[in-house]
Amino acid sequence: MEFNTTRAINDNYSLLVSAAEVDVRALAGQLTSMGFECKRCGECCRSHQADNSVIVFPDEVFRIMDANDLGWYDVCKPSAPQFIDTIHTLHSFEWELKRHSNGSCTFIHDDNVCRIYFWRPWICRTYPFYLHFENSPSPLLNVSECEGVGSGVLCEEDAGNLALLLKERLISEIREEIHVLEHLDGLETWELFNSSIHGNIAQFRIAVHDSRGCS
Ligand code: SF4
Fold first, then answer.
1. DSSP output for 123-147
2. Do the bridges between strand 205-210 and strand 89-92 make them parallel or antiparallel, or are there none, so unpaired?
3. What is the pTM assigned to this prediction?
4. Residue 162 belongs to what domain range?
5. How many Å lie between the centroid of ligand 1 and the Cα of residue 87?
6. Residue 1 — pLDDT band, cuts 50, 70, 90?
7. How many Cβ atoms sit within 10 Å of the Cβ of residue 121?
8. Which stretch of DSSP H or E encloses residue 95?
9. How far apart are CA 103 and CA 48, in angstroms?
């Protein structure tokens, strides 16, 4: 079925309404009954995780840049492109934190301390939890691989703060997607990019679309 931008925007507005209705207290209760304690193992920041890419929004990138005197491309890079257009430009819809060639985040120190801890993105603040719509009218709590899950007691205050962050993160993700879609022009004419058909990514220009437009 052909991609329809207007329909996608409307669908996201519906998701936004559901996200705004997330009951933070009930979510905090779920987190408390699950239990969690960060073991400071640094595994989530390193290459050992199957997919440890950290998607970042422009606001998050600017916050990290400003506080640490870094440039845009010191902080992030385009995530894998998904589409190719008729003039052979690839299109990506997200930025992700830069990683070393071994896959580890460039901000993790040898002692597992995050260099940008106070400015770290939503994903890092809420890991290993996230809210996701799985063909359900309301978002469900999901958990990524982490040895800290179930291993400690989350006090009421910490669970409440985490639940609030999860809700805010979901709302920000949906808002970002709406803004990206609103700035898009021509997506209906693009093809899905497949390197085995189209060739190596390195030979193409990449356009990244975010809430600010296209760069
Ligand atoms: S920004 Fe910090 S917390 Fe997030 S992946 Fe990198 S080192 Fe880990």
1. HHHHTTEEEE-SSSSS-EEEE-S-T
2. parallel
3. 0.90
4. 5-214
5. 36
6. low
7. 23
8. strand 95-97
9. 8
